[in-house]
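does this look right to u?? S-adenosylmethionine version
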Amino acid sequence: MELNKIYNEDCLKTMAKMPENFIDLTITSPPYDDLREYKGYSFEFEKIAKELFRVTKKGGVLVWVVNDATNKGDETGTAFKQALFFKECGFNLHDTMIWFKPNSFNFGSNSCYRQSFEYMFVFSKGKIKTTNLIKDIPTKLKGQKVKGARKHANGVRDVVPDFVVGDYKKRNNVWEIPVGTSNNGHPAIFPEKLAEDHILSWSKEGDLVYDPMLGSGTTAKMAILNNRKFIGSEISKEYCDEANKRIKPHLQQLKLIF
Ligand SMILES: C[S@@+](CC[C@H](N)C(=O)[O-])C[C@H]1O[C@@H](n2cnc3c(N)ncnc32)[C@H](O)[C@@H]1O
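got this back:
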């Protein structure tokens, strides 16, 4: 099938064209319960989840960014139900990560704290094949030589050589990323940094990145800018046109490489 293309159709139709074990990394955020109005989508979660498992390469990753609606003071729990269904499909739940939105616009009800995060469930198909964990937390002991010691659960200590502490340690699994503002009419775009940091963490250059619900095209744009191939599906013609407009200036770069 043609790569580096946005398919204006239901993602089930796009995935039906894909062979098994095809995609290195999927990053997506589905329509959350009935939280937002999109342009006439149909969303068959269980079929989509099974297809995502089939098309993901062995060791490949799926990042599912999701939240719940609250109906009369009761959160739906859909995010958890979906996470457990992905496990039933065969995925490992590799890491339950949180996207913390410091500038969240959702104040919640009077009896709840401000709604300020979304889940980022990271699944892998078997043992994960690519991890480039981002190290951007400055260490307190940067540059200092420290005594190496490793204590096991049974209290036994290993002798480990002394080492010099590096400048940065790996990031926590709660990512603080401000919510982006939409400049192209889509109501729920990813921040570019969110898509980019997952692309850097779970794939390598030349890998194939898929977003089955591409919206305004964020995942495709960040895949291109990081030298990954991409496929996108978007059911709405209007959003698909917007996404094509957004990636057009960057596509040439990808064509030069691949
Ligand atoms: C939460 S938005 C994604 C936003 C995207 N992450 C971005 O940065 O713009 C979900 C998108 O999924 C699309 N959609 C819903 N059901 C779909 C389906 N079955 N196949 C393809 N796209 C679908 C909607 O039209 C909507 O644009």
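The two ends are 15 Å apart (CA to CA). idk if thats expected tbh
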